[in-house]
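Complex 331.
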Amino acid sequence: MTRVTLTRYLIEQQRAHNNIPAELRLLIEVVARACKSIGHHVSKGALGGVLGSAETENIQGEIQKKLDVISNEIMLEANEWGGHLAALASEEMEDVHPIPNRYPRGEYLLLLDPLDGSSNIDVNVSIGTIFSVLKCPEGMEPNEAAFLQPGVRQVAAGYAIYGPQTMLVLTFGFGVQAFTLDRETFSWVLTQEQMRIPPDTQEFAINMSNQRHWEAPVQRYVTELLAGRTGPRGKDFNMRWIASMVADVHRILTRGGIFMYPRDAREPDKPGKLRLMYEANPMALIVEEAGGAATNGQQRILEIPPEKLHQRVAVFLGSKNEVERVTQYHG
Ligand code: AHG
Ligand code: MN
Ligand code: MN
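Predicted structure with AHG bound:
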């Protein structure tokens, strides 16, 4: 069997369908290389001195882990000089980071969750990196306003997962492909083409400890799932919650399921925990491209007009029929 590397996949796609321009290919290759480097640091654990907290706070008011900071730096360093980007934005940086003047500027904008699932770093559970790519609107400075485009405008999105296997999952808006890191050649090898999420599922993912804070539609939906075979749904449901969005989404892409992080009453001014621009949007594009659905309970996540870089959003994503049901319950 011929092994298709990431480079070969990107070049052959462009040749056959003219849908991955050279600059975008370069960008994705740089991001993918940076993910290998992050994965390398992750795997060193205590031996690399990468565990524990950095004792600094990010813009979200969260204490940064050492790996949050390291991963952000790896991404910055890898992407600054290549000439493919106009600017970057990240969970770990308050403001947009324009490409410094000493380097050529490209036309793309890159949004990052450099390290997703920070609470799992020190306990050796799967974590990841999420990214989203937009085009800088013509004639616009690459400032915050340039980034505030709805998710439907993403030209690419993906994530790396650092788990038992290190994988890269990618979409350019024509299906979802997965690559596995070959640790002998240190290259990404195509291992799954056109991933599909089954429309029905018997598995859900939500942090149940927040139940008392949920709004009525989510209370109703989850109560019905928990009622199982003798309840209104007439079947039993299983539950998983990894607390790394990347790992929960990866499971759903692989065998179906619904993932929920609803808005709740803990911080009533915040519409949920997850961030629209670098968590919800890229995952929504991937999930939709695999035949699933993604909403905030009211509308498609990909159609939400962003107002702020670090804006939060409620998230319901995964198997289509379940996402549609919980969205209907929101009226
Ligand atoms: P991050 O580590 O980038 O801040 O993201 C963590 C997110 C997401 O990955 C996960 O689904 C969720 O937080 C878990 O939240 P709880 O700890 O509230 O369950
Ligand atoms: Mn995250
Ligand atoms: Mn993060």
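The chain has two domains: 6-192, 203-329.
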